[in-house]
Structure formats: structure tokens, C-alpha cells
Amino acid sequence: MRIWCCFCFGEEEEDNSKGYKKSMRDPILGNNGDESPDENPAFDWRAVFDGVDVGGAGASRPRADNVGVRRNEEIDFDINWLLSDVEVRNGNYSGERMLNVNLNLGLSEEASSSSTVQREDPDRDSCSKRPKVNSFSLDWDNHLLQETNYLCPMNEGGGDVSLSNFLDATNDEGKDIGISKMEDLDVRMDLTDDLLHMVFSFLDHIDLCRAASVCRQWRAASSHEDFWRYLNFKNKQISSDQFEDMCRRYPNATAVNLYGTLNIHTLAMKAVSSLRNLEALTLGRGQLGETFFQALTDCHMLKSLTVNDATLGNGIQEIPIYHDRLRLLQLVKCRVLRVSVRCPQLETLSLKRSSMPHAVLNCPLLHDLDIASCHKLSDAAIRSAATACPLLESLDMSNCSCVSDETLREIAQTCANLRVLDASYCPNISLESVRLVMLTVLKLHSCEGITSASMAAIAHSYMLEVLELDNCSLLTSVSLDLPRLQNIRLVHCRKFIDLNLHSGMLSSITVSNCPLLQRINITSSALKKLVLQKQESLSIITLQCPNLLEVDLTECESLTNSICEVFSDGGGCPVLKSLILDNCESLTAVAFCSTSLVSLSLAGCRALMSLQLRCPYLEQVSLDGCDHLEIASFCPVGLRSLNLGICPKMSVLNIEAPQMASLELKGCGVLSEASINCPLLTSFDASFCSQLKDDCLSATTSSCPLIESLVLMSCPSVGCDGLLSLHSLPNLTYLDLSYTFLVNLQPVYESCLRLKVLKLQACKYLTDTSLEPLYKENALPALCELDLSYGTLCQSAIEELLACCTHLTHVSLNGCVNMHDLNWGFTGDQLSRIPGVGIAPHGSSLVEQHLPNEHPKRLLENLNCVGCPNIKKVVIPMAQGFLLSSLNLSLSANLKEVDIACYNLCFLNLSNCCSLESLQLECPRLSSLFLQSCNIDEEAVEAAISRCTMLETLDVRFCPKICPPSMGRLRAACPSLKRIFSSLVPS
């Protein structure tokens, strides 16, 4: 059997030889097919089931059930619904792409009106036949092709499986050809009807239409009326006949959305007359005649009517809306002269943003009334409408500028159950003599008549839960004792001064941009977070909040030291955990005694001079910007780390922190008294504490025996007695004594037996014999890193240190003026004479194949000789620098010759060595070479890098003898190069 798919997009049928005429009557709908499909715009996917052709009033063709046809005879199958689906998802509903949607997705076994299925011998192997596309009427776009491929998977033989395979195609014996095709494709979807129904209940209409093309069972399941109770034609182009067909197809639909459709009046009339079970109707963006509202009485099941942005009637007549069962009515942004609503069951009515000047209501059960932004409604009209609804619970009259207190008083007397009132932007109300006893929500945004006298009326609303007073410009004070108040807002109240609230249920307070606010008194057992940022005039706070956890008073510049009593024990906040007082610049002496405080921030309190914290559970404290702090006491606190280096004027410090592990006093240059009791302290940095003496250091080491890292850089007052006290620190491994006046290092040798890192930068008073115990007496056997930068040791002392202290791995000799040549015994020319090492014929190194058998003499890995002005020659043979991985000789202006053979060297920096002339390298693992601003020529560089087979980065910027055109030669000399940094133009 050959299956032909004919894509018909509104064009007339060319082949009429099979006896199918457009004038034939649809056997399901009973409509004729005389009308051209192009005469009506197609809507999306709503009427694709059961052979409904929405391309015209009756552009469908019947199918003869028992007519035998030849094997090669063609059948037609419209998949215009697929293009319509594409149009829906692309949001393109323009008339330029009107499509004829014609797809048989019926439930019954009745003949389809949109496709003709050919019969053939059942013994034939139908799987070997490929479906074939007969013709195209329009150009395909990529998106449609993707959708077609998605719906038409490929079979095993490589042929296309047409959509018609999944429709109601049967052979002469009644066997479902489509299902057998799917079985052959191993796409089995044998699910129970109940399970399908449950799964399809999660799909939208587009996905239901896609599912309908899978098989007959899915088609039947997806067209179940349960999924089509809501007919949504919002912003769709649908004709009157199409909509009538849909109403006939799904007569049990309960909800219809016609917003944005053409001719909403006609469609709405058909909806209320055809759908007897209609409960919800949405209309808009058009004109509704009076006859529609008269016909509403015949739609007995209607419960919800929404009309948005429409003209009712001719705009100058009264519109009556009478309905016995209507419960929700919304006339939003509608243009009408007068509305009369008589609906005995109506509960919710919205006339928001509508232009009617008169509204007559007869709705005894109305609960919610929204007349917001009805600017033409007079005060009397609002009063009449609201008082006609005695059961009213919610009233929104915001932006009704003509509302008066008299209207509110009558509403309060008539509507005893009123709970929600929004009178925002009503400048004429002051609540004088208004008693709204049952009110729970009151919104009074931008009400210019609301003053402190209005609080007397609000105080009678003892059920009030939400109060919003934003932008009440004349309000000066709020004093309320409301037991149920939960939420209050006071934003941009320019004259507001005093806030006094007593409510056990108060949980949210929003006070912002009230520049004159001075006093706050709050009593609440439910409040957990209080944020009062940028209240510049706030000076007095009284709190009785037993469950308050967080307080933020950032930039409350007028707060005084008395605020500490509020947040200390006994101040009314017994469980407070977080307190932020950033940029409170009036605080000078802060003292907190709290057993609950965990986090405290005083950043930016520049006037703070004294700080006393007795908070045993305090874990975080911020003192950034407290540069005038002189006295600080942390006794006790739960801090694990503390940085006071930003307090340069601190002179007295007391710390008792059982959990503290890190303490930094870097920059406390006037600190003279320090009592530090931190038994778990491991890191102590007292850099630039020039007044720190031996007694303070001794007391600290005795009370903090676990210190591992001690930094005493620029502490000139520390002497031998202080260094001898380091014997109390058995775990000390890092010691920095740089920039001190030390003369003798013997106390260090005796006290720091486990020291690994010793920094002695700029210790210019050390003698040449100060380091002899290191390389003659094996002092500090665990020492790995030694920094002697900017020292005055002689050349011989340095050479002996490097030659004898073979356990050192990191040595820094930066800026040593007495550092001359660095010659470790072998030159590059002598490298070939080292036993086991040779040069390959083509210049490649054989070091990797011939490593020294004996243990290397030095363990040195990193050597820094930056800025050594007198160093001229560097010679490091393989045997002496086998483990060396990093060498930095930059800024050595007199360095002329470099001859290095190091197997593990990876990093070499010779930048700014302007006298460099000779460079010989035998470094098979070198990856980075820096020669910036060197006078070496390109031939020497080329020869040097030719033996560095792993070099990746080369920096030759600002080298006057190396021009950018020569980069190719360098890459040829070292093929492993990945990055060459060079000047854009020759220097």
C-alpha cells in the first residue's frame, strides 16, 4: 500500500477524480463544504478532533468506509493543524498566514471527513511500503520540518513514517494499520484508559493535539471532554462559524475565554446560547451590545463574568446586569455611562478603572467590592453603592479622590462586617468619628488628611492586623495598643517623630525614610527581626521583645551610648543574636553584656574610643573603620578569629577567648598593654606593634602554648628575654623577626627547635657570625625556609650557608649588597664531563636518561636573588642544583653571565638584567623564561632555549636586540613554545 500525504493549505483540490467534492456534507457536523477555506482566518488547535475542519464552514470530505481501491491509489491527509500549532507557539496570528486545519481525530469508528484511507490485501507486508508526499502548497520553514520529524519517526528501513500511519487507517479485515505500524517500530504505548486519562490531565491543549497523532487510543483519550472544559481563544483569530462548531463539538464546556477575539459580541452571544453548562466567561477588547447582557439571564449556570477593556452598549446608555446565579462580576477598564447590577448571589464585584459616573447595586450577598481608580464616581455614588451591600467584607476605593469621612461613617454603620479597607490616595479622609470595629486590613497610602488625631479612630479597630501609612506627609506620631496588629508600614512620612506600638502579635515593622523619627517604643512577643536603617534622627529606642533575634540600625547617626542597655541582658531582648550598628557615628563608648549575642558589627563607627564586650557566645565582630578605638576588652567572647590591625590608636587590649585560633594586631603601633588569654591560639601576628615589650610577649606565650605561627616584624622592643620565652611554644614552626634590631640569634636557636620558617629581612644588625650555628652546629635542624633579604651578611657567610645548610628548600637573598657571584662549581662547558651526562648529536639533552646516582648535595628548590646589584655571574651545575625548580634573578643590573644546568628547573626570571650577555641553559623541564628588558641578542636566546624542550612561555618584551620578526626563529629553535611575549614595535 502506498500512502500519500497531501498538504493542503487552503488551495482548491486539484484531483476530483475520486469522487470527493467539497460540496459534500460532513457526516459528523452535517455542514456543507462549499465555503472556501481561505475565507475565514484559522485559529490554533482548538477544533482538530473528530474531523472538524475549521478552515471553513464545511471544508471537510467524507470517507467511504467500504469502498475498495487499488493498491497504488492515493489518499489525502491534511496536517495543517501542525502549521497552526507552529503559529500558536510563535505567536503569529496575522491574516497573512491563514491555514486550513483539517485533521480527523474522532472518538467513534465513524468515517473521517478529513482523510481517506485506502484498503489493500492484508497479506501484503505493509511495513515495506513508504509513505510519500504528493505535493506542497506552501514553503516549509525549519521549525515545521523539525515538528514533522518529531511526529514522524524513521522506520528501520530508513523510510519516513507518515502522520497518517497513526490515524484511523484499517485494512479489509479491520486490523488497525496505524497500530501495527507502531508495533513494528517497537513504539508500544499499551496503557490503560484510566492511566492515560490521568497522564493527559497534566497536558495543555497543544500537547493534547500532539498526543492525538500517536495512535487511535491516544486520540480517543486526548479528545475526552474532561480536557476540553475550558475553551481558551484569547487573542486568537476565530470566526463565528468556527466558534459555533467548537460549541457544538464540546457542548459541556464550562469556561470560555474570548478576550481579544474579533467581534466579541457575536461570539459571546453564541457562547451563552449554545453552552448550557457555561460557568465562566471572559471577554474584552471590543464592544458588547445591550442584547448580550439581556441574554445573560438565559445562561442559567453562569457564575463568573469578566469583561476587560471593553465598551458596554453604545457608551451612553445604562447597562443592566441581572442574573440569579452570578457570583463573580468584573468590569475592568470599561467604558459605560451607568451600570445597574442586580444579582442576588453575587459575592465579588470589580469596577476597577471603569469610567461610569453612576453605579446602582442590588447585591445583598456581595462580599468584595473593588471600585479603585473610578475617578468619575461621585462621593454620593460610592456611598450609595457600598451601603447597598450590608454583608460587604472587602472594599477597595483607592484613588477615589472624592471620598469623604461622611461616606466612611455610613459605610461603617451599614457594613458591620467590613474587614478590608483600601482608601489609599484619598486626600479628603481623616477618619474623624469613623469606627471600623471589625477591620483587619487598613491601607492609607498617601492620605494627606491622616494625622496623629486619626490614630484615635484606628485604635477602635481592635481586630486590626495590617496597617499601612506610607507617604502620609502630615502624620507626626503613631501610638497604638492593638492586640492583633501584625504588620505596620511607615515609609516616606516626612514629619513622623514618635512611634509607640504595643501588640503581642506584631511580627513585621517597616520604617524607612522618616528623617525626623526620634523615638521608638515597641512591645511585642512575636517580633523576630527589626530593621530601622538610615533613621538619622533616631536617638531613643525602647524594646520589650522577648523573641527578637536580629536588629539592623545601620546609619542611625543619632544613637547614643545608651543603646547598649537596650541590647544587653535585662534590656528587653533576651535572645538577640545579631546586632548591626554600622556607621552609627555618635557612639563613643560601647559596652555589651549579653549571653545571647552571636554577631556584632560596628563598622564605620569612627567616633568609637572604648569597647567592652562580655558576650561568651559572640562569634563574629566587625570593627572596620573604627580607627579611633583606644581601649578594647573582649572578656570573655566566643570569637575564633579577630583582626584589630585596623585600629592604629589602640593602646590597651584584653582578650579572653577560649575558642580563638587566630589573632591579628598588625598595625597597632601604640599598643603597650596587652593581656591575651587564648589557650587554643595557633596564629599570632603582631607586626608593627612597636611598643610591644618582652613582658607582654612572655605573658602571651605562657597563656597561648599552641601558637604555631608568630609574626613579630617591626617589633623593635622585643629583645632576648622575649625570644627566650618562645621555649613555651613547642609547636612553633613559623617565626618572622624581620625589621628588628636583633644582634644575637642564640635565643632563637635555643627556644625554637622545631622551627621550619625563619624570616630575617632587613635585620641589619646581625653579624657575619650570627648564622654560623645553622651550618656549623646544625642548629634548627627542621628549618626549610630562610629569608635574609636586604641583610648585610658578607659573601663568605652567604656562600657557607648555601653550601653547608643542605636541608634548606627556600632561600631568599633579595637586595643583598654583599652578594657577588653565585658559582656552585661547574660551568655549562663542563657539563659534558659530568659522569653519566652527555649531549646528543642534535643538541638535545640526555639528562633525563642519565640522572645522578648519588643523593643531591642540596635540597634547595626556590632561590630568590632579586635586586642584588653586585652579582655578575651565576653558575649552577647539574650536580649542585638538581632539585632547584625556581630561580629569580630579576633586577640584578650587573649580571652578565648565566650558565645553568638544572634538571628540575621550571621557572627562571632574568627580567631587567640589562647587562646580560651570555645565557647557557640545560634545563629540560623549564616551562617559563622571563627576559624582559635584557640586552641579550636573539642568537644567544635561540641557542639557550634550543635545549629547553618543555619551554612554553618566553617573555622578551622591551629587549632592544630582539625584534618581532625574529619570533619565527625562536619558535623553530624551541617547538614546544606556546606563548611569546614581545614588543609590538622594535625598541
TrEMBL record:
Domain F-box: 185-231
Pfam families given in the database record: DUF7885, F-box-like
Region annotated Disordered, chain positions: 17-40, 110-131
Gene3D superfamilies: 1.20.1280.50, Ribonuclease Inhibitor (3.80.10.10)
Compositionally biased spans, kind Basic and acidic residues: 118-128
PROSITE patterns: FBOX
Protein name per UniProt: F-box/LRR-repeat protein 15
